[in-house]
Amino acid sequence: MSRKFSFQLESTNPRRPLPGKIIVGQRDTETTAEVLLKFLAYLLFYRDRLQLEPRLHDDDLPYQPDLVQFDYTLRAALWVECGDCPVQKLDRLAVKVPEAEIWVVRRSWAEAEELLRQMARHELRRNRYHVIGLDPDMFAEVEGLMHARNEVCWVAGTFDPPRLQFDFNGLWFDAEFRLARH
Known about the structure:
Blueprint: E1 3-11, E2 21-26, H1 32-45, E3 50-52, E4 67-70, E5 76-82, H2 87-96, E6 101-106, H3 109-121, E7 129-133, H4 136-145, E8 149-159, E9 162-168, E10 171-176, E11 178-181
Parallel strand pairs: 1-8, 5-6, 6-7
Antiparallel strand pairs: 1-2, 3-4, 4-5, 7-11, 8-9, 9-10
């Protein structure tokens, strides 16, 4: 790890309490944008047993997810990739984690559309993947506000309609995002 980012969390939804604090590590090869994508995906997908970059002890699964939720039989029920993800990896994930919902979160709709084009060109399985493209202006502004220590008040993250509402280091964000299924 080259750097760590801590996030003090508060949720305004009593039915969806968040942990008080999470720490997201930045590897030597990662950008702050990738750290921010993981953090926002964590908030958007938050649920019981959601894990951020866990070490998997499965020889048949050579990949490490950015986010994963295991069911009670320790099979992946949710697998989330953030940022650049090769289509070959996505193709293999469909086989390696057959019961899991597979999501990819990109920082803009343009990046998400390019991934969808690559998935179609490589003929990846249909109805197996979900792709999210965030608002690029919102993402760039939040990235500019990110420090080693951050305070976040999460108000909403919904898929219908696709929308994020939160306060990040004292600045309010209310942004739409796009999602597609492949």
